[in-house]
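User: Sequence in, structure out. Go.
Assistant: Echoing your sequence, followed by the structure tokens.
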Amino acid sequence: MSSKMKFCLNIPTRLIFGAGELNKLSTLPLPGKKALIVISSGTSMKRYGYLDRLQAQLAKAGIDSVTFDKILPNPIVAHVNEGAERCVAEQCDFVIGMGGGSSIDSAKAIAIVAANGGTFWDYVHCGTGGCKPVCRALPIVAIPTTAGTGTEVDLWGVVTNETTQEKVGFGSPHIYPALAIVDPELMLTVPPLLTAYQGFDAFFHAAEGYIGKAHTPISDLYALEATRLLYKYLPVAVNDGKNLWGRIKVAWASTLAGMVESTSSCIGQHALEHAMSAYYPELPHGAGLIALSHTYFKTFKNDSMKRYMKMTEKMTQAKSARPSDFLDALERMKRQCGVDDIKLSQWGIQPSDFERFADNAIATGQAMLDLDPRFLNRHEIIDLYAEAYR
């Protein structure tokens, strides 16, 4: 290795991983005395008793709590600001995000606004954001009930400004969760299609972090293991959702992919998808990524040949002779998970959208685009959308 190799590793989150581990919450040191619990506007947290279990654990530990339950699958600024107001009014001193990545990302954003004041968009450093520094945040506890984002162990989140139609990533070392409990038992109720969407999101976190310019020796270790596990076990979890071993493996892979996010970065594929779901918020993030994936990864197959082949060998446990083997393995994985025929047109996307998608991706996601294996100009981005479209 080169003597010039430099990297930093700092993931300060205390991670508790394992089936049934939510039941230990009351025995763990918690970062405050009153929690704002942030969950989605859906019914699953209440229907399956997850919220009741969390509240019971907090009560057992002598922790008061209030619940904010308005978060959308693509969370919006208005709800972040409303949640922060509720947090301050109720005098909560820490925030718990429970659910999918949208709930945990919203908890992170709420923790910023509640601690610093103002509105969330004041602290966004791209697009039309106000670029104010994040000086602190309320402590955060992350309890994912899906396996996809890995946000429980990283310093990032994603929120959409519904007024300006900008879906942006935000980050700060202050929003690393103080505690993360990853309990795969909470993921047994996720439907097959959502399991696939979320699992592919984790897969692309790892794959993008591996081929991108920001990769490090540490992120490479996490990324290769995450892609291996997801290639093997995501089809198991999709096709047999009650298979706890499959859920455990996928959950661990998702957390590893979150560690990739902390030691490398997402790259252009995520910037391109964020632009699509900024305009079409009903488009699931994972579905958008899957739809773009073949064209996106084909674009760079000759720029990162050795990395494509290495990733393929870890996934398939077989020798790779060409970078296109990765594309073949990716398509095989999609078929096994039943997501090989996604059409962007089913969410209303039209070819006339491609130019504004490209402009939005450049305006809000240039930092990720800059980490692609090579630079893509606006015309190439438009062409990529066009080739991926059906």
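User: And one key feature?
Assistant: The chain has a mean pLDDT of 97.
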